[in-house]
Write a structure and sequence with these properties.
By secondary structure, the chain is an all-alpha fold. It has one domain (about 1-170). It contains nine helices and no strands. It has helices at about 1-30, 35-50, 60-80, 85-95, 95-105, 115-120, 125-135, 150-155, 160-170. Helix 1 runs parallel beside helix 4. The longest helix is centred in the N-terminal third of the chain and has 27 residues, at about 1-30. About 20% of the residues are buried. It binds zinc ion (2 copies). One zinc ion binds near residues 22, 26, 47 and 138.
Length: about 180
């Protein structure tokens, strides 16, 4: 039981990380920025043409996350002497966030049977919930791994609250994507 609870917790932490990074990119990266401009352009393209990124294979949509994940594991091990199956599971889930996101955009015929079932059983995020992120100003439902965290965070108005706090403290406004 303890192990199942820990696994669920790790999945939710990975889901939150996926939402936090996605929110940072959507809210604060702008196409004209030097380092993160490419990320902003890619996200805007995805909001505009959601199926375009399905052309990418797993490696093409995950290599940057894998690189970051390996750096995190290396720092944990070499700088802090920390390495555990839990950390590896967290990194493994997080670096596959884009792949899980892609599955939410694919038709049933385009993805493996087991993936469809995992979505049907609400274990990973499906099209219906992720579709909410693609509505309106694309400023809600940022988490892409499960169906669990998004409704809770939206109920709390978590992202809006964070944006207001950032505006108050730094004066920086979030990016407006239009409708
Ligand atoms: Zn987005
Ligand atoms: Zn999407």
């Amino acid at each position: 039981m303890d192990i199942i609870l820990k696994i669920l917790l790790i999945i939710l932490i990975a889901d939150f990380i996926s939402g936090f990074v996605h929110w940072l990119e959507d809210a604060y990266a702008k196409p004209e920025m030097r380092l993160v401009g490419a990320i902003a352009r890619e996200n805007l393209l995805h909001h505009d043409k959601p199926r375009d990124f399905l052309k990418k294979n797993w490696w093409q949509s995950s290599y940057d996350l894998i690189a970051i994940g390996l750096v995190i594991l290396a720092v944990a091990w070499f700088a802090f002497g920390v390495m555990s199956g839990w950390l590896i599971l967290l990194v493994f889930l997080s670096v596959n966030a884009n792949q899980i996101h892609k599955w939410a955009h694919q038709n049933r015929q385009e993805k493996p049977w087991l993936v469809t079932k995992l979505q049907d059983w609400n274990i990973i995020q499906g099209a219906r919930q992720h579709g909410r992120h693609h509505r309106g100003e694309k400023n809600t439902y940022y988490c892409v791994i499960t169906n669990v965290l998004n409704p809770v965070l939206e109920e709390m108005r978590f992202w809006v609250g964070l944006e207001r706090l950032i505006l108050r403290v730094t004066g920086v406004e979030r990016r407006f994507d239009g409708v």
